[in-house]
Amino acid sequence: MSEQTDKKRKKPHNTGFYTALVLSIAAVGAAAYYAWGNTGGQENLLSSSAAQGARSVAEAVDQTQSNVPQSEPQNTSQSSSEEPDASASSAASSEADEPQLSAPTAFFRPVEGEVAQPFSGNELVKNETMNDWRTHNGTDYTAALSAPVKAVAEGVVLSVTNDPMWGVVVEVDHGGGYVGYYTGLNETVLVQPKDHIAVSTVIGTVGEPAPMELSAGSHFHFELKKDGAYIDPQSVMVQPAE
Questions:
Q1: How do residues 48-70 score in pLDDT, each as one tens digit?
Q2: Average pLDDT over residues 114-118
Q3: Residue 141, burial from CB neighbour count under 10 angstroms (0-12, 13-18, 19+)
Q4: Please, are residues 203 and 159 in contact by the beta-carbon 8 Å criterion?
Q5: Interior/surface letters 227-241, b for 16+ CB within 10 angstroms, e for the rest
Q6: Contact, 203 vs 182, CB < 8 A?
Q7: How confident is the model at residue 102 (pLDDT cuts 50, 70, 90)?
Q8: How is residue 235 annotated by DSSP?
Q9: What percent of the chain lies above the pLDDT cut of 70?
Q10: 162 and 141 Cβ atoms separated by less than 8 Å
Q11: Residue 202 lies inside a defined structural domain of this protein
């Protein structure tokens, strides 16, 4: 009897214990949930505040950068173009060194002899050496072997060549479109290309008759062009070269 009474008394005590335990657990869970909710909200609030602050800083940086004056790019092409062109300077210097020829005011005979055969222009004449008819594009002057041959005017030597039909030939630019051809010279000429020569400068001496006019005997053959066309040398000659 006493044992049953003790059991009944103990049963309410155990039930209250478990109930208190459950309530405690529930309270702890509610507190944890409440704390988690507050923490999460605080974190969200901090995150939102941080994001807003970052945007404000970014906007401030952008505004500051937009107010910075942009520097103009340097024009390197202008500075490089102002540098002197070495090749152009060299060319200009070379042109300055070359004599500037003007048209001769007078021409003088290249040798002291008389005219042996005149310039024929468009008229065909008999070439005894070649045994054919052709134009005579220059003037033949009587001249002894080794007689001096002089420049008919001031000029610049363009070339010295050995032609198979005309022998040693010196080509001279006399300015104003005039170019003279001194043919049949001895091989020992006294000028060379690019030489600037004065009127009456001895160019060389009369050589053996050129193969083209071998039958004409000792003489000197001179040709003159104006702007690329043959002209009569005698039409511009005034007297023998001095």
A1: 444 444 444 444 444 444 444 45
A2: 95
A3: buried
A4: no
A5: eeebbebeebbeeeb
A6: yes
A7: confident
A8: G
A9: 57
A10: no
A11: yes
Q: How many CA atoms lie within 13 A of 127 on its CB side?
A: 18
Query: Is 232 part of any domain?
Result: yes
Q: Are residues 114 and 189 in the same domain?
A: yes
Strand partners, 197: 155
| DSSP string across 84-153 | --HHHHHHHHHHHHS------S-EEESSSSPEEE---TT-EEEETTTTEEEE--SEEEE--TT-EEE-SS
Range of the domain at 219: 107-240
Instruction: Specify the pLDDT at position 90.
Output: 47
pTM for the complete prediction?
0.61
Q: Which of 149, 181, 167 is nearest to 209 (CA)?
A: 167
With respect to residue 78, please indicate whether it lies within any of the assigned structural domains. no
57 and 147 belong to one structural domain: no
Half-sphere exposure (CA, 13 Å, Cβ side) for 13?
5
What tokens does 167 get? 């022998």
Q: DSSP letter string over 66-89?
A: HTSPPPPPP-HHHHHHTS--HHHH
C-alpha triplet 40, 41, 45: angle, nearest 5°: 120
